[in-house]
Amino acid sequence: MASRIKRLTGIVPLAVALLMPAVSGQPISGRSLPLVFGTTPIVGVEQTRRRLQPLVEHLAHKIGQPMELEVAKSYGALIDAMVEGRIDIAKFSPLSYVRARRRTQNLQLLAVQVANGSLTYSSYIVSVASAGIKPLAQWREARLCFADPDSTSGYLMPTAYLLERGINPFEHFASVEFGGNHRACLDGLFDGRYDLVATFSGAIREARQAGKPVGELVIVAKAGRIPYDAWCVRSDLPVSIKNTLRQALLSTNTMNPLGRRVLAPTLGINGWVAADDSIYDNLRKVESM
């Protein structure tokens, strides 16, 4: 199945994505601090920055090292930045982690986040109630929006779900676009530019907090559960930095006032747990079927 998914991605024109702003990464021994923390633009560059900045400042304080937050313009741009050594620490969406790990051995998983009381989250295909509720096979006139080709909930899982049911999204629907992030997809749905959107539960919560009319949403399909994001470092960072950062993550949670304060702006993060790379093996199977 995944070979079909990769071929489908290839037929959609994708813009060359770069980090914003650019960072001048080199091996840690060859450049000065601050450490660069990179993340995908889950709900857009500025919204993601606003939600993660307090946490990044907290982690910098905990490890005693200055840290700079860089939000990539796309999921693929974050992968490139890690592979090219332009960032030191990364919050990868699950599929982005799997693909980054395939491209470089200089990547170490420190912890996996827990959010909204769970280690996993849901991928959905959603619409608005005014469009009516009907089987996906009857949505041939629909305009579908995926988040990003390297998004797990916003592309891989819903595409796999559709293909398993004999629906090639690029042939079945009237049009297919990549919004770039979950917020852009949902905004397009509310604005009437899309009829169907692939997204995840956290993005819907974020839209609700932003005052969007999420009460109008209806779930057309549940595309599966996914392990949460991988928090990683470059393997060649000093062991002392990696160990201190891992401890900082594992000791930050919503069980205490400080943890609740720095985690409040995030998309429901409760804390982190130590995890093995094998937690993402099911995604590898989906991609390789």
Structural description of this entry:
The protein is built from eleven helices and twelve strands. Strands 1-3-2-4-11-5-12 form a seven-stranded mixed β-sheet, with helices on both faces. Strands 8-7-9-6-10 form a five-stranded mixed β-sheet. The chain starts with a helix and ends with a helix. It folds into two domains: 19-117 and 229-288, D-Maltodextrin-Binding Protein, domain 2; 119-226, D-Maltodextrin-Binding Protein, domain 2 (3-Layer(aba) Sandwich), CATH 3.40.190. The protein has 289 residues and is of the alpha/beta class. α1 crosses α11 (281-288). The protein is globular. The chain has helices spanning 2-10, 45-63, 75-83, 94-103, 152-164, 169-172, 182-190, 201-209, 239-250, 257-263, 281-288; strands spanning 19-20, 35-39, 67-72, 89-92, 108-115, 120-128, 143-146, 175-178, 196-200, 217-227, 230-233, 269-273. β2 (35-39), α2 and β3 form a beta-alpha-beta unit.
Number of helices: 11
Main sheet record: 7 strands, mixed
Shape: globular
Q: Uncertain regions: pLDDT < 50 for 5+ in a row?
A: 11-31
Just name the CATH architecture of the largest domain. Answer: 3-Layer(aba) Sandwich
Mean pLDDT: 90
Structural class: alpha/beta
In CATH, the topology of the largest domain is named D-Maltodextrin-Binding Protein, domain 2
For the record, what is the CATH homologous superfamily label of the largest domain?
Answer: Periplasmic binding protein-like II
Topology:
Layout (H helix, E strand, L loop, with lengths): L1 H9 L8 E2 L14 E5 L5 H19 L3 E6 L2 H9 L5 E4 L1 H10 L4 E8 L4 E9 L14 E4 L5 H13 L4 H4 L2 E4 L3 H9 L5 E5 H9 L7 E11 L2 E4 L5 H12 L6 H7 L5 E5 L7 H8 L1
Parallel strand pairs: 2-3, 2-4, 7-8, 7-9
Antiparallel strand pairs: 1-3, 4-11, 5-11, 5-12, 6-9, 6-10
Helix pairs in contact: 1-11, 3-4
